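Cross-posted from the bioinformatics board.
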Amino acid sequence: MNMPNVQYKNLDASAAFQKLREHRPERALSELLTAERIDKFEVDAAGGLRYNYAAKHVDSTTLDLLQQLADEQQVIEKYRLVLNGEVMNTGEGRMVLHHLVRGQAGDAVTEDGRNLREFYKEQQGRVNKFAAKIHSGEIRGSTGQLFDTVVQVGIGGSDLGPRALYLALQNYQGRETNGSNRRPRLQAYFISNVDPDDAAEVLSRINLESTLFILVSKSGTTLETLTNEAFVVDAMKKSGVPGLQPKKHIVCVTSETSPLAKPGEYLDAFYIDDYIGGRYSGSSAVGGTVLTLAFGKEYFTQFLEGAHEADTASLEPDIRRNASLLDAMIGVYERNVLGYPYTAVLPYSQALSRFPAHLQQLDMESNGKRVNRNGEPVGYSTGPVVFGEPGTNGQHSFYQLLHQGTDIVPVQFIGFHESQLGVDVKFEDSTSQDKLNANLAAQIVAFAKGSSNSNPNKSFPGGRPSSLVYGKQLNPRALGALLAHFENKVMFQGFVWNINSFDQEGVQLGKTLAKQVLGKGDVAPELASYASRLSVRRS
Amino acid sequence: MNMPNVQYKNLDASAAFQKLREHRPERALSELLTAERIDKFEVDAAGGLRYNYAAKHVDSTTLDLLQQLADEQQVIEKYRLVLNGEVMNTGEGRMVLHHLVRGQAGDAVTEDGRNLREFYKEQQGRVNKFAAKIHSGEIRGSTGQLFDTVVQVGIGGSDLGPRALYLALQNYQGRETNGSNRRPRLQAYFISNVDPDDAAEVLSRINLESTLFILVSKSGTTLETLTNEAFVVDAMKKSGVPGLQPKKHIVCVTSETSPLAKPGEYLDAFYIDDYIGGRYSGSSAVGGTVLTLAFGKEYFTQFLEGAHEADTASLEPDIRRNASLLDAMIGVYERNVLGYPYTAVLPYSQALSRFPAHLQQLDMESNGKRVNRNGEPVGYSTGPVVFGEPGTNGQHSFYQLLHQGTDIVPVQFIGFHESQLGVDVKFEDSTSQDKLNANLAAQIVAFAKGSSNSNPNKSFPGGRPSSLVYGKQLNPRALGALLAHFENKVMFQGFVWNINSFDQEGVQLGKTLAKQVLGKGDVAPELASYASRLSVRRS
């Protein structure tokens, strides 16, 4: 394997960062933003998408210094190490291979003689064959009914990403890419929370006889997911339906060594491995199984192609020609030089309604770290808080603070020329799609340039930075590229901050304490006090 | 009317605030949190709820100073002015009467000889009668079908609050409070976004003949909502269903002077007035119509009673005995003394899945202001960024940053002893509900106390503050109290910051620029450039 020689150092040890801290653009953002700049500050972002950063408060010196910083922190070299199978998740001693699930962007990666690209392809092939049999009716429910519903049972990365992607493509359901099969695919639901009302509510909507459950847990030990499996099996047993065999309605997505890897006991099992982190697993079998069952293999294949295209484009070392790297570097500038503690993600696309929730996990779980990859506390801010809702909805909600609050919140806009369904109406001389995008254009300019008014309550200070990712339509390929754009942005930022973006030790303490509460032994008095307030029956 | 004599001054002109800035608790939060403190730092929060603030980093001196600050800023007196009908929305010259919708907590408020409490009651009575006729089948669709579906068409406060409340009580649907009527109520959907895919997707799920639409716009001029009305009417016209009369499937919730106030043209119209702000309108006819149609009048009445109970409890001047005031004051301390720029709202209740999105609007639109009520820029931070998702889901997502990020994010937990549906399963010796609440207890302690480990990557610094609102069950009464708790908290904070929490001028500039884009005239080149990138067809 081709392993570049890299060094790891903290952001504040970087010479470029020191220079960056001392530089500010001479002119205000409101003055900088011109039509010429909008044309110039734009770069291809794969999958038919473009990334426009004209409304970010950077000038050519800022960009040069960000280029130096990216070079100094060797982010592209480190990305190559990821692609080539180096152990980049150092804390857990694991490779980081979610890119390999969608294509070969680096050298071949093998483990114990097995080519892992082939392994991932094999699993997706197995999912495709399985889905085809479900769609054709060759595989049916245990009482003979066709499967028309699929329920993903998983939490965290097994839920947020797949759910956001499902909603993003839901409008593609039933539109076949060729005329050979006009049968609608499966409708999907998701059960994630250990709150029993989550599973109970979903189960109240579905017909158990025609429902396939996908149990998703890499380790096979996720407590919420195993509990919800028990919940589902219990419901099937209590349903009184003659001949209903619960395990014949369940497929597992898990690792080969997990307790759930029992294809004989369940209807089937599809595999991932330890190198696919939960929040990066949307393009693996974790997302692929439910999406292929819902939409068919053609759309999921296009989605993977879009993601792979973005992965390849992300190898470009010139930040002005690499959208995800540029997005990452501007984010570091806003976080560590300008001191903004949050980022809003605002898609002007209802289909992306849960995409911000996925990015919230992706970003905050990856980069919400206070120690560097050697375990030393860092002396600078790392990952920001990420939040967002679709526009125009947000305009009638929290945008008030974004426009006129005391603090500046950088914004990441996403938009598309065309709607997905193509059903529209003209009202007051414009279509809804035109209104949607007119609002998006207006918001970028309003945030950047503001507007003065003799009534200070109606004045807008401006100077509020945003960027825009846009394309023709949110189709499967664009969605894949969009997902990979953000995954790679987050990874690049982790390299700049010298942290491990691929582990999540911060989730462990709560789990440990919860187990103590549920166990038989003594617990700390304050823990017992809260548990008692919440009426937890300790065993 | 009983109008206390009040003065308005900025936070940084307050003597108590100067003292507050100089005081820090002597001991760390991790040391402060004991079982005794948990017992002591708790107060009733109406509706059967309790507010526990033991895991906030405050001591008795902090609380005394916050009491002084609340007194100095005369927050209770100002709340009395709100209740008594003073023009507290000064920018728009309006009274602020959402409390009056749920009960009379102050003096009678009249306008042009009309008692406004009676007006709001009259409207809710009309909604109740209308809903009863819909439920009994006395009023049917224009082709004779029973209405079984209701679609709320509105945006911002006409969407987020009602939607969050609908989801919160959805599990109550079909459970009658008496045995007289076992017929399920209407299932609700919501159309908000001007993105045509939003309306098209909802319309693809419903039967137009059995669907009632509620068109909600106080002014009757909200562009998104009128556009979506046109979308819905167009779909009905194109449906080809003989005899289908679109306007006979639509009721309006609007002000009496609005262009939508045409009960003859539509099936009916219910009224609010200018004194019910959008984000405060969940308990008015804006939320009441859809919730009464979905759940029946008994549950909505209980919801209003819970809210009124909280409104009355919020009159208590002693911060240690007034949960919403205490929550507000601790929030000010965290924002303006400790400098935390955000707050996470984490309900351990799947039914509250969209409650954080509603609070995000409520808080950020109310207090995201940079000028005081006189229009002078303030020299301190006002409203924070608010975000959140239900637990335990969030534990597997962004909690990583909350536990181990470089910055501290204060947390607002919400929990209940019992689930809503009561369907549960034992797995590994505990129920799902017990697991849910064990996790909640564990998180509070984990955030506050942390945990050290020889591996710094597995260490938790602790010192991360949280509070807990909890009760027996998320029933309609508790939900009303919960909503009012946060509404009043936000209002109190606005008084402390000396801002107007009841207007939203920050939404105007974007609207103006969007209209320019959609109009025929010239627009600024940068606006034209973005519009062209997004393929907006200018008329």
